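Case study B.
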Amino acid sequence: MNAYFTRCTLLIIVLCFGVRANAQQFLIPDEVILQHAGSIGYVSVGAGYKLFNNERGNLDLLYGYVPKSKGGTLHIITAKFAYKPFVITVNKLGKIYPFNPGLFFTYTAHPDLQLKFSKDNWPKGYYYWSEAIRPHLSFSNELELTKPRFIKAAGLKSLSVYSEFNSNEWYLVNYFQNVPEVSVKDVFKLGIGVRMRF
Amino acid sequence: MKIFTKLLLLSGLLAGCNAFEYSPNQTFDRNSPTDLNRKALEQLMSVQPKNDTLKFILSGDTQRSYKEIPGFIEKVNSLDKVDFILVAGDITEFGSSKEMEGYATRMKKMRVPVITVIGNHDLTGRGRAAYARMFGDLNFSFIYKGTKFICHDTNSREYKYNGQVPDLNWLAQELKPTAGVKGYISVGHVPPLSEDFDQKLVPKYKAQFENTQGFVAALYGHTHTYLTSEPGDRFNYLVTGSVENKEFIIVTVLNNNITHERVFY
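Model:
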């Protein structure tokens, strides 16, 4: 249980701070993100950072909200990392990134959700997961518009629309233990969003 | 380009079948069923009983065992004269509404009503709220063929042994003599023999059953292995094996005499 948390925390720290050398530059996001669903909120807003010299990596930090009427109230903090290995250039439009694998972590703030099950109440290993922190696997596709006139007119370098599928360790445990009774589409959940680069 | 088109198509399809999720911790989505226990009881009461013999299934702990559920359903549906099914808790592993939905959707194929009692796993995360919306009250009772079934939350550890769970006052009320009730059966998840049950409450809890005229049996799950009362025990109890172990119990009661049979599938 401890090891699990240490690993999660380390990974987030590495993702957040280990990538850019220039600290000042690090703080200025490259993109503004708005997302609907995708297991990180009914709506979420955040900042995106381009990673690596080829800018194929994304680090996104988001705040998400689920209102009571949609099964909340939940406040969710998300740190995403994804890489775009494939690119298709489309004349007059921009680029398509058809398959971008990634992983992300969510922290959900709610009185019912403990960071870890207290050792005072549950024997070690009684429950083996965190209620508040969830690791997710994701894959997304993205259409990045740079060429159309309205992009520049709006003062943007690019405007992207994307859809992202994700699953988490709860759902994957249930999936792998129950193939084929539980199918991939039962455990991968969808979100859609836009990224604006200024 | 082809891949992208396919992914777009897939996105559209998944959007159509409720793939948009706001959080694994959301307590419901727009397709979540509600009040399933009340609906099951309405279904049960809507049919005039043909005889006085009670025959029902005791099962529990479906948890991560979705692939065992179809075999369970097939076996139960092949049995004659079953009145209803009691699932004695732990219908989820992680207490998520998605798991509860996965369970509820599959159990719809049962020919007879399914009544679901809350287990400790179902109380983790936001499970308590999700269960309350999807199934109903955590403590509830119903009367069928002159027997009162008292379904209650016995998951003391999840409440940090606060002395309120199981709710002995509520139980005392439910066990009071009632017109038209000749027998009492209690249903919970954690049996009193488990450390997960508040041991401070065990003597009073047991005494309530022992002192109730017409108390037939106490039914539980949680241990995943079959257990029953032994000579010397002052009231009957039954603990069912889990769905994971492909086992359930058929319980038959006539004139407060209880018999049971283990079934494997």
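Chain A has one domain: 2-197. The remaining cases will be described in the next quarterly update.
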